[in-house]
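Render this sequence as a predicted structure.
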Amino acid sequence: ALHEGHIVSAQELTVLLQPLFIQNSRNLILFLQDTLSIDDFTYLSESYGNKNPFQNQVNKLFINLLQEILQSSPSSLVLPAVDCKAIRYLLSFLQESGDWKLTYVTNLDVSQLQVNTSNPNLLMVQLQPLVSGLNKVSTLEAIAENDKIIGRLTMDLQERGIHFSVIYTAVRPSRISRRTDVVWELRRQLMATEEEDSLSYPPLNVTTGNDTCILFYARNFTLKANNSVFIDLTNSTFVTQNVDISSSECSDINTTLSLKYTKPVNGISSLEIRFLMTNKFYEGSARNWSTLDSVEIVQDGEKSATFNVYVISAPAEYSSHCQLVGTSNLYPARLIPSNDEAKNWDVFISRLQIQGFNVENNQFAYASDCTGFFTPGIWMGLVTSIVLVCILTYGIHMIMQLTTNSRFDDPKGPALSVPQTE
């Protein structure tokens, strides 16, 4: 029993998960999403009516339980949650807690999944990321698609007669609740500001000898091939680091970050992604700048897709940071296809930070953001203001040109006649 608003720590989470390891069924499914909060279940299930994205049995049972708790509570209730820092070590904790056979389920078609019930199985399912903040409809569709994935996998295992337990969680919360401890403090607090969550996992580093020459980090790193095959590389790149970076090259002028994956999904035997960066001296600013010039995707060692990049740059001593990078027109930093093969790929990278030169102490240097000062919103405000100022100036000018008559007609006197010469 935990009091409302309690944040479950990593140590408490290990105690709560102990019943999973002593029961007869030793099959565990871990559904991992990029963002998720308890409020998402109640908000999305009630606000969208017939479009409720939660349709599978697992989520319906959880929603019914939440509604019963909310209705039975005599006062407003803040449900307990799990600290996102504890989730970072959840996979490693589960692996250390038993002799599990770890299986990464990356293919959305789970009908071909083979489960050997004679041994304990840990199925790791990386769900699709939520495009939150850009479009609520796309977020709703992504949650509905993840709900279908959970339903297909659980129903398939039930039809086979396999008993299992399910953990549905995320790397970080989608909604940051107000801190409950500030009400006990006497001094005033800025409630609108929250401490930004630190990196959920360490960045990927490439070393030459004992020195680190490349640092790479992304909160979400996903691809889509031919508008159908979804490939999530976040976990393989940063959490388990099941990626080959031996082909990366470092120098003072050109740097290439090479990420090679073996069988990321069914149908693709190998996948290589290259980030090509240069360090040049520009006379206009009288300093060196590092730029990310292009991104290449090589499938099965033959099909090569090339994307040009224009806005990701920083002084050579800094790192480059972009909130959203991808092939969509909505992203501030866009990857522009430069050949026909690139048109078959969709790329989505959030919270990208990369540094290919002058890395010190195995840490990112000061980040130079790729978003310029004059954003589309600022330009729209400036143009609108200029138009309104022009209209105001024209109106004032017209008012100043108005003149009054020098003589007025008296209704009691003779009619006023004005000669045509006046």
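Summary. The longest strand covers residues 268-282. Confidence is low (pLDDT under 50) at residues 132-136, 177-199.
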